[in-house]
Write a structure and sequence with these properties.
- By secondary structure, this protein is mostly beta strands.
- It has two helices and 15 strands.
- 8% of the residues lie in helices and 49% in strands.
Length: 309
Protein backbone atom coordinates (compact mmCIF):
# COMPACT_ATOMS: atom_id res chain seq x y z
CA UNK A 1 0.00 0.00 0.00
CA UNK A 2 1.40 3.41 -0.88
CA UNK A 3 2.49 5.80 1.95
CA UNK A 4 -0.17 8.31 0.93
CA UNK A 5 -2.85 5.74 1.55
CA UNK A 6 -1.44 5.02 5.04
CA UNK A 7 -1.55 8.75 5.82
CA UNK A 8 -5.12 9.09 4.63
CA UNK A 9 -6.26 6.14 6.74
CA UNK A 10 -4.46 7.44 9.84
CA UNK A 11 -6.04 10.88 9.36
CA UNK A 12 -9.51 9.34 9.21
CA UNK A 13 -9.00 7.35 12.41
CA UNK A 14 -7.48 10.31 14.28
CA UNK A 15 -10.36 12.53 13.17
CA UNK A 16 -12.87 10.04 14.57
CA UNK A 17 -10.98 9.91 17.87
CA UNK A 18 -10.96 13.70 18.09
CA UNK A 19 -14.68 13.95 17.38
CA UNK A 20 -15.47 11.47 20.15
CA UNK A 21 -13.27 13.25 22.72
CA UNK A 22 -14.88 16.56 21.79
CA UNK A 23 -18.41 15.31 22.48
CA UNK A 24 -19.92 16.61 25.72
CA UNK A 25 -21.36 14.33 28.35
CA UNK A 26 -23.05 14.44 31.74
CA UNK A 27 -22.25 12.70 35.03
CA UNK A 28 -23.94 9.28 35.34
CA UNK A 29 -24.00 5.77 34.00
CA UNK A 30 -24.53 5.21 30.28
CA UNK A 31 -26.23 2.71 28.03
CA UNK A 32 -24.37 -0.59 27.63
CA UNK A 33 -23.14 -1.77 24.22
CA UNK A 34 -22.00 -5.08 22.80
CA UNK A 35 -18.19 -5.44 22.52
CA UNK A 36 -16.36 -4.86 19.25
CA UNK A 37 -16.56 -8.00 17.05
CA UNK A 38 -12.80 -8.27 16.44
CA UNK A 39 -13.20 -11.87 15.22
CA UNK A 40 -14.58 -10.53 11.92
CA UNK A 41 -11.03 -9.65 10.86
CA UNK A 42 -10.15 -13.33 10.41
CA UNK A 43 -13.63 -14.82 10.06
CA UNK A 44 -15.34 -15.03 6.67
CA UNK A 45 -18.80 -15.49 8.15
CA UNK A 46 -21.55 -13.54 6.40
CA UNK A 47 -24.32 -14.07 8.97
CA UNK A 48 -24.31 -14.66 12.74
CA UNK A 49 -27.16 -15.45 15.13
CA UNK A 50 -26.72 -14.77 18.86
CA UNK A 51 -28.77 -15.95 21.83
CA UNK A 52 -27.91 -14.57 25.27
CA UNK A 53 -29.14 -14.97 28.84
CA UNK A 54 -28.07 -12.94 31.87
CA UNK A 55 -28.89 -12.85 35.56
CA UNK A 56 -28.00 -10.90 38.69
CA UNK A 57 -29.01 -12.27 42.09
CA UNK A 58 -28.14 -9.04 43.90
CA UNK A 59 -30.38 -6.74 41.85
CA UNK A 60 -32.92 -9.35 40.77
CA UNK A 61 -32.55 -8.27 37.16
CA UNK A 62 -32.57 -10.88 34.41
CA UNK A 63 -32.55 -10.55 30.64
CA UNK A 64 -32.40 -12.44 27.39
CA UNK A 65 -31.69 -11.22 23.92
CA UNK A 66 -31.52 -12.58 20.40
CA UNK A 67 -29.74 -10.84 17.57
CA UNK A 68 -28.50 -10.94 14.03
CA UNK A 69 -25.23 -9.65 12.60
CA UNK A 70 -24.66 -9.28 8.87
CA UNK A 71 -21.33 -8.76 7.18
CA UNK A 72 -21.62 -5.96 4.62
CA UNK A 73 -19.73 -5.84 1.28
CA UNK A 74 -16.32 -4.16 1.63
CA UNK A 75 -12.79 -4.41 0.31
CA UNK A 76 -10.28 -7.17 1.02
CA UNK A 77 -8.67 -5.48 4.03
CA UNK A 78 -11.75 -4.19 5.84
CA UNK A 79 -14.85 -5.72 7.35
CA UNK A 80 -18.16 -3.89 7.74
CA UNK A 81 -21.13 -5.18 9.68
CA UNK A 82 -24.64 -4.41 10.89
CA UNK A 83 -26.23 -5.96 13.97
CA UNK A 84 -29.48 -5.61 15.88
CA UNK A 85 -30.79 -7.30 19.02
CA UNK A 86 -34.22 -7.97 20.46
CA UNK A 87 -34.11 -7.46 24.24
CA UNK A 88 -36.36 -8.70 27.03
CA UNK A 89 -35.47 -7.88 30.61
CA UNK A 90 -37.19 -8.11 33.98
CA UNK A 91 -36.27 -5.52 36.60
CA UNK A 92 -37.95 -7.37 39.53
CA UNK A 93 -39.82 -4.21 40.52
CA UNK A 94 -36.66 -2.08 40.72
CA UNK A 95 -36.58 -0.11 37.48
CA UNK A 96 -33.73 1.89 36.03
CA UNK A 97 -34.82 5.17 37.64
CA UNK A 98 -34.82 3.45 41.06
CA UNK A 99 -31.24 2.29 40.56
CA UNK A 100 -30.04 5.55 39.01
CA UNK A 101 -32.40 8.40 40.12
CA UNK A 102 -30.38 11.02 38.25
CA UNK A 103 -31.31 9.55 34.86
CA UNK A 104 -35.10 9.88 35.28
CA UNK A 105 -37.19 12.84 34.14
CA UNK A 106 -38.96 14.59 37.01
CA UNK A 107 -42.52 15.77 36.32
CA UNK A 108 -44.77 17.87 38.64
CA UNK A 109 -48.11 16.26 39.41
CA UNK A 110 -51.30 18.16 40.35
CA UNK A 111 -53.45 16.70 43.13
CA UNK A 112 -56.93 17.66 44.37
CA UNK A 113 -57.28 19.21 47.83
CA UNK A 114 -60.45 19.36 50.01
CA UNK A 115 -61.56 22.84 48.83
CA UNK A 116 -61.81 21.53 45.26
CA UNK A 117 -58.77 23.33 43.93
CA UNK A 118 -55.75 21.78 42.27
CA UNK A 119 -52.37 22.18 43.81
CA UNK A 120 -49.02 21.14 42.41
CA UNK A 121 -47.41 18.37 44.43
CA UNK A 122 -43.80 17.33 44.59
CA UNK A 123 -42.19 16.16 41.38
CA UNK A 124 -42.20 12.44 40.68
CA UNK A 125 -40.18 10.30 38.34
CA UNK A 126 -41.83 9.78 34.98
CA UNK A 127 -41.16 6.09 34.34
CA UNK A 128 -42.90 2.92 33.31
CA UNK A 129 -43.98 0.89 36.34
CA UNK A 130 -43.96 -2.39 34.40
CA UNK A 131 -41.41 -4.96 35.55
CA UNK A 132 -40.96 -6.51 32.10
CA UNK A 133 -39.41 -4.49 29.28
CA UNK A 134 -39.48 -5.73 25.69
CA UNK A 135 -38.19 -4.16 22.49
CA UNK A 136 -35.42 -3.77 19.92
CA UNK A 137 -32.06 -2.31 20.83
CA UNK A 138 -30.41 0.36 18.72
CA UNK A 139 -29.21 -0.84 15.30
CA UNK A 140 -25.42 -0.77 15.07
CA UNK A 141 -23.22 -0.27 12.02
CA UNK A 142 -19.46 -0.67 12.13
CA UNK A 143 -16.24 -1.17 10.19
CA UNK A 144 -12.98 -2.91 11.13
CA UNK A 145 -9.58 -3.00 9.48
CA UNK A 146 -5.82 -2.90 9.91
CA UNK A 147 -3.26 -0.14 9.45
CA UNK A 148 0.43 0.61 9.96
CA UNK A 149 1.49 3.31 12.45
CA UNK A 150 5.02 4.65 13.08
CA UNK A 151 6.72 2.88 16.02
CA UNK A 152 3.60 0.87 16.84
CA UNK A 153 3.58 -1.19 13.65
CA UNK A 154 0.39 -2.95 12.70
CA UNK A 155 -2.78 -1.95 14.56
CA UNK A 156 -6.36 -3.10 14.16
CA UNK A 157 -9.03 -0.42 14.33
CA UNK A 158 -12.81 -0.36 14.60
CA UNK A 159 -15.41 2.38 14.38
CA UNK A 160 -19.11 1.91 15.03
CA UNK A 161 -22.28 3.96 15.37
CA UNK A 162 -25.66 3.29 16.98
CA UNK A 163 -28.82 4.87 15.58
CA UNK A 164 -31.58 6.20 17.88
CA UNK A 165 -34.27 3.70 16.88
CA UNK A 166 -35.06 2.27 20.30
CA UNK A 167 -37.26 2.88 23.33
CA UNK A 168 -35.92 4.66 26.41
CA UNK A 169 -37.78 2.11 28.51
CA UNK A 170 -35.09 -0.44 27.57
CA UNK A 171 -32.40 1.55 29.40
CA UNK A 172 -29.62 0.62 30.20
CA UNK A 173 -29.70 -1.89 27.32
CA UNK A 174 -30.89 0.69 24.78
CA UNK A 175 -32.02 4.31 24.50
CA UNK A 176 -33.23 6.79 21.91
CA UNK A 177 -29.78 8.25 21.39
CA UNK A 178 -26.97 8.33 18.82
CA UNK A 179 -23.63 6.92 19.97
CA UNK A 180 -20.23 6.40 18.42
CA UNK A 181 -17.27 4.24 19.37
CA UNK A 182 -13.65 4.08 18.22
CA UNK A 183 -11.42 1.15 19.23
CA UNK A 184 -7.83 0.07 18.63
CA UNK A 185 -6.20 -3.34 19.12
CA UNK A 186 -2.57 -4.46 19.09
CA UNK A 187 -1.86 -8.16 18.64
CA UNK A 188 1.38 -9.91 19.64
CA UNK A 189 2.31 -13.31 18.23
CA UNK A 190 3.57 -15.50 21.08
CA UNK A 191 4.13 -18.61 19.03
CA UNK A 192 2.38 -20.93 16.60
CA UNK A 193 -0.69 -21.37 18.84
CA UNK A 194 -0.85 -18.26 21.05
CA UNK A 195 -1.78 -14.63 20.39
CA UNK A 196 -1.97 -11.87 23.00
CA UNK A 197 -4.04 -8.79 22.19
CA UNK A 198 -4.41 -5.44 23.96
CA UNK A 199 -7.24 -3.11 23.07
CA UNK A 200 -8.76 0.19 24.09
CA UNK A 201 -11.95 2.00 23.21
CA UNK A 202 -13.83 5.25 23.64
CA UNK A 203 -17.60 5.70 23.33
CA UNK A 204 -19.52 8.97 23.26
CA UNK A 205 -23.29 9.47 23.39
CA UNK A 206 -25.64 12.24 22.37
CA UNK A 207 -28.43 13.36 24.70
CA UNK A 208 -31.46 11.02 24.52
CA UNK A 209 -34.59 12.05 22.68
CA UNK A 210 -38.15 11.55 23.81
CA UNK A 211 -39.22 11.37 27.43
CA UNK A 212 -38.13 9.34 30.50
CA UNK A 213 -34.37 10.00 30.29
CA UNK A 214 -32.29 13.06 31.11
CA UNK A 215 -28.91 13.93 29.64
CA UNK A 216 -27.34 12.31 32.69
CA UNK A 217 -28.37 8.92 31.29
CA UNK A 218 -25.91 9.13 28.39
CA UNK A 219 -22.29 9.62 29.40
CA UNK A 220 -20.26 7.22 27.31
CA UNK A 221 -17.59 4.69 28.19
CA UNK A 222 -13.84 4.38 27.94
CA UNK A 223 -11.69 1.39 28.74
CA UNK A 224 -9.53 -1.45 27.54
CA UNK A 225 -8.40 -4.96 28.19
CA UNK A 226 -6.25 -7.93 27.27
CA UNK A 227 -7.17 -11.15 25.49
CA UNK A 228 -5.21 -14.39 25.13
CA UNK A 229 -6.22 -16.45 22.11
CA UNK A 230 -5.23 -20.10 21.72
CA UNK A 231 -5.44 -22.03 18.47
CA UNK A 232 -4.57 -25.60 19.46
CA UNK A 233 -5.01 -26.82 15.91
CA UNK A 234 -7.86 -28.56 14.22
CA UNK A 235 -11.25 -26.91 14.48
CA UNK A 236 -11.06 -25.40 17.98
CA UNK A 237 -10.28 -21.87 19.09
CA UNK A 238 -10.17 -20.65 22.72
CA UNK A 239 -10.08 -17.13 24.17
CA UNK A 240 -9.88 -15.65 27.64
CA UNK A 241 -9.83 -11.97 28.48
CA UNK A 242 -10.21 -9.34 31.17
CA UNK A 243 -11.43 -5.82 30.46
CA UNK A 244 -12.38 -2.70 32.38
CA UNK A 245 -14.83 0.01 31.32
CA UNK A 246 -15.25 3.38 33.01
CA UNK A 247 -18.27 5.69 32.89
CA UNK A 248 -17.87 8.77 35.09
CA UNK A 249 -16.85 7.25 38.47
CA UNK A 250 -18.16 3.77 37.70
CA UNK A 251 -15.64 1.08 36.73
CA UNK A 252 -16.90 -2.31 35.57
CA UNK A 253 -14.49 -5.24 35.27
CA UNK A 254 -15.54 -8.05 32.97
CA UNK A 255 -14.08 -11.55 32.68
CA UNK A 256 -14.86 -13.26 29.37
CA UNK A 257 -14.14 -16.86 28.32
CA UNK A 258 -14.97 -18.12 24.85
CA UNK A 259 -14.68 -21.40 22.98
CA UNK A 260 -15.32 -21.70 19.26
CA UNK A 261 -15.36 -24.62 16.87
CA UNK A 262 -15.73 -24.96 13.13
CA UNK A 263 -18.51 -27.39 12.22
CA UNK A 264 -17.69 -27.55 8.52
CA UNK A 265 -19.50 -26.25 5.45
CA UNK A 266 -18.88 -22.64 6.54
CA UNK A 267 -20.69 -23.12 9.88
CA UNK A 268 -19.07 -22.15 13.18
CA UNK A 269 -20.32 -22.16 16.76
CA UNK A 270 -19.06 -20.08 19.69
CA UNK A 271 -19.98 -20.28 23.38
CA UNK A 272 -19.16 -17.34 25.66
CA UNK A 273 -19.30 -16.84 29.42
CA UNK A 274 -19.12 -13.29 30.80
CA UNK A 275 -18.94 -12.35 34.47
CA UNK A 276 -18.65 -8.93 36.11
CA UNK A 277 -16.12 -9.03 38.93
CA UNK A 278 -16.92 -7.46 42.26
CA UNK A 279 -20.32 -6.30 43.44
CA UNK A 280 -20.70 -2.93 41.75
CA UNK A 281 -24.24 -1.61 41.98
CA UNK A 282 -24.07 -0.23 38.44
CA UNK A 283 -23.36 -3.47 36.60
CA UNK A 284 -26.05 -4.35 34.03
CA UNK A 285 -25.70 -8.05 34.87
CA UNK A 286 -23.60 -10.38 37.00
CA UNK A 287 -23.26 -13.33 34.62
CA UNK A 288 -24.18 -13.75 30.97
CA UNK A 289 -24.05 -16.78 28.68
CA UNK A 290 -23.95 -16.36 24.89
CA UNK A 291 -24.30 -18.85 22.06
CA UNK A 292 -23.34 -17.70 18.57
CA UNK A 293 -23.81 -19.53 15.29
CA UNK A 294 -22.11 -18.04 12.24
CA UNK A 295 -22.34 -19.04 8.61
CA UNK A 296 -20.22 -18.16 5.58
CA UNK A 297 -22.74 -17.76 2.77
CA UNK A 298 -21.78 -18.35 -0.88
CA UNK A 299 -20.12 -15.25 -2.26
CA UNK A 300 -19.38 -13.99 1.25
CA UNK A 301 -15.75 -13.20 0.43
CA UNK A 302 -15.40 -9.86 -1.23
CA UNK A 303 -12.63 -8.54 -3.40
CA UNK A 304 -11.75 -5.09 -4.52
CA UNK A 305 -10.20 -1.94 -3.11
CA UNK A 306 -10.17 -1.07 0.55
CA UNK A 307 -12.89 1.39 1.56
CA UNK A 308 -10.34 3.68 3.18
CA UNK A 309 -7.95 3.77 0.25
Amino acid sequence: MAPGRHDRRNQIVLTLVGMLFAATSAQALSVTNEPTPWHLLDDESSLAVTIGLSDDERTGWSSNHAGLMFRLPTGERTRAYARWFHVVYDDAGVNASDRWPEIGVMEPVEVAIPDGELRQSDEVLLWNVLDRHVGWSRPEFGILGSMQWPLLGGLNYAASAWLPFASNELYPYAARSISGRIALRKELDLGPAFTLAFDGFLTRDMAPGGDLLTEDAMVGWSGGGAVLRVNPGGTWRLEGGLSAASSNQTVLELLRIEAGRSLGEGLRCRLCLEHHLGDDQDRPFATRVLAVWSLALPGGEESGDDLLE
